[in-house]
C-alpha cells in the first residue's frame, strides 16, 4: 500500500547563492512548490551541508566569493557521486561554464536573469531524473 | 609504542565517494595503532580543510593536515593537503614532502601514484596500501610498485564502492593482493599486521578504548 502523501518525505534542495535576497526568494518559491529547502551562501558551506545530508538537486550559482562554483561542484561530486546539479550563472563568459557543464554529465545551465517558472520547471525535471535513477538502482539491487 | 610488526606505514587513497567511505573507516582505526597512517583524498584545494573539520571527531587518533617535512610516525593520521602533491622520503626518518602542484606532472592532485611509489621506494615491504572508491586509474602503478617490493596491497571490494573503477582497475592490473568490503578493511589490515595489533586489541579490550 502506498504511503499517505503527508508521510512521503519532500525532496530536499540545496540553493547556493551569495546574494541573500535571491536565496530567500528561491527558498520561498521552492518551498511553495513542495520541496524542502536548505540554503548556503558559499561553496564551503554548501560542501559541509552536502557531507551531512543527501540532496535531490543542488542549485549552484557560479559566481561565489573566494572559491568559485565550479570548485564547489567538484568537491560535492567527490562526496556525492552522481549528485544532480543545476547551474545558474551571470558569468560574462558563459562559454567557460558551458564547457565545464559538458565535462560534468551536461549539468543544465541557466543564465541570469532567468524566468522563475523556467527554473522551477528545470529543478522539477532534474528531481524526476534523479528519482528515476534511484528507482533503477533499487531495482538493480 | 609496541611494534612487533614489520609494517611501517599504512596509506589509504580514495577519490569519488571517498568522503563517505572514510567516515566509515576512520572510527575503526585504533588509537594505539603502532603504524603511521597517511590518507590521501582527491578534493579541490580549499575543501580538504572543510572536510577534515567535519570528520575530525570520528577519528580516534589525532587527524592533522600534513605539512612539508612532517615526520611520518605512529600516533597521528596525516591527511594530504589539497592542491599539492605529497611524497614519502627517507631522510634519517621517514618524512612527507609536500610540494606545489607544479612540482609534479599529473592530472590528479594529490597524485596517488607518486605518493605510493615514493612510499615503496622509502619503506619497501613495510608499506600497506589500501585503494578505495574512486573513478580514475591513479594509484594503480603505485600499488604495483608496492607489491613488487614486498608490501601489502588491499582494494575495497567494488560492490561496496560508490564508484568502483579505481579498485577495479587495481584488481584488473593485478595490483591488489587482497580484496575486501569496506567494513572489513581494518580487520584485513590487522591480519596483515599481526601479531602486534592483536596485542593492541587485547590491551584495548582490557582497558577500554578512550576516544
> Could you say which overall geometry of chain A the principal axes of the C-alpha atoms support?
globular
Give the fraction of residues assigned to helices of chain B. Answer: 25-40%
Tally of alpha and pi helices of chain B? 7
Classify the beta-strand content of chain B into a percent band: 15-25%
Ranges of chain B where pLDDT stays below 50 over 5 or more residues in a row are none
Strand order of the largest sheet of chain B: 3-5-2-1-8-9-10
Mean pLDDT of chain B: 92
Mean pLDDT of chain A: 88
Q: What is the 3D shape of chain B?
A: globular
Count of DSSP H/I helices of chain A:
5
Distance from first to last alpha carbon of chain A:
21 Å
Element-level helix/strand string of chain A: EHEHEHEHEH
Percent in strands of chain A: 15-25%
Q: Could you walk me through the main structural features you see in this protein, from its secondary elements to its overall organization?
A:
Chain A has 141 residues and is of the alpha/beta class. Helices cover 48% and strands 17% of the residues of chain A. Chain A has a five-stranded parallel beta sheet, with helices on both faces. In chain A, strand 4, helix 4 (94-102) and strand 5 (109-111) form a beta-alpha-beta unit. Chain A starts with 11 loop residues before the first strand and ends with a helix. In chain B, helix 3 runs parallel beside helix 4 (140-148) and helix 4 packs across helix 5. The relative contact order of chain B is 0.19. Chain B is 32% helix and 23% strand. The radius of gyration of chain B is 16 Å and the shape is globular. In chain B, strand 1 (9-14), helix 1 (18-25) and strand 2 (37-41) form a beta-alpha-beta unit. By secondary structure, chain B is α/β, with parallel strands linked by helices. The model of chain B has no long low-confidence stretch (mean pLDDT 92). Chain A binds chain B through residues 43-44, 47-48, 51-52, 66-67, 71, 74-75, 77-81, and chain B through 15-20, 41-47, 50-51, 53-54, 135, 162-163.
Amino acid at each position: 500500500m502506498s504511503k499517505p502523501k503527508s508521510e512521503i518525505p519532500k525532496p530536499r534542495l540545496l540553493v547556493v547563492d551569495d546574494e541573500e535576497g535571491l536565496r530567500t526568494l528561491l527558498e520561498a518559491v521552492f518551498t511553495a512548490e513542495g520541496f524542502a529547502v536548505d540554503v548556503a551562501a558559499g561553496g564551503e558551506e554548501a560542501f559541509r551541508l552536502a557531507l551531512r545530508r543527501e540532496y535531490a538537486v543542488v542549485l549552484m550559482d557560479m559566481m561565489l566569493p573566494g572559491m568559485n562554483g565550479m570548485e564547489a561542484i567538484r568537491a560535492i561530486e567527490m562526496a556525492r557521486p552522481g549528485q544532480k546539479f543545476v547551474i545558474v550563472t551571470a558569468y560574462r563568459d558563459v562559454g567557460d561554464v558551458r564547457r565545464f557543464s559538458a565535462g560534468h554529465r551536461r549539468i543544465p545551465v541557466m543564465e541570469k536573469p532567468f524566468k522563475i517558472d523556467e527554473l522551477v520547471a528545470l529543478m522539477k525535471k532534474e528531481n524526476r531524473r534523479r528519482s528515476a535513477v534511484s528507482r533503477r538502482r533499487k531495482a538493480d539491487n | 609504542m609496541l611494534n612487533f610488526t614489520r609494517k611501517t606505514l599504512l596509506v589509504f587513497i580514495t577519490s569519488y565517494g571517498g568522503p563517505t567511505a572514510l567516515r566509515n573507516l576512520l572510527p575503526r582505526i585504533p588509537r594505539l595503532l603502532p603504524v603511521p597512517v597517511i590518507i590521501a583524498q582527491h578534493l579541490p584545494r580549499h575543501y580538504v580543510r572543510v572536510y577534515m573539520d567535519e570528520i575530525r571527531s570520528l577519528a580516534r587518533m589525532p587527524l592533522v593536515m600534513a605539512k612539508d617535512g612532517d615526520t611520518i610516525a605512529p600516533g597521528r593520521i596525516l591527511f594530504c593537503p589539497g592542491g599539492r602533491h605529497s611524497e614519502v622520503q627517507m631522510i634519517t626518518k621517514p618524512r612527507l614532502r609536500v610540494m606545489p602542484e607544479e612540482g609534479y606532472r599529473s592530472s590528479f592532485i594529490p597524485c596517488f601514484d607518486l605518493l605510493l611509489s615514493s612510499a615503496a621506494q622509502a619503506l619497501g615491504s613495510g608499506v600497506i596500501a589500501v585503494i578505495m572508491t574512486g573513478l580514475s586509474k591513479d594509484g594503480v602503478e603505485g600499488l604495483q610498485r608496492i607489491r613488487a617490493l614486498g608490501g601489502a596491497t588491499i582494494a575495497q571490494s567494488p560492490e561496496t564502492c560508490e564508484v568502483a573503477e579505481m579498485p577495479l582497475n587495481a584488481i584488473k592490473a593485478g595490483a591488489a593482493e587482497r580484496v575486501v568490503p569496506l567494513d572489513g578493511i581494518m580487520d584485513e589490515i590487522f591480519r596483515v599486521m599481526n601479531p602486534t595489533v592483536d596485542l593492541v586489541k587485547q590491551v584495548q579490550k582490557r582497558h577500554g578504548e578512550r576516544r
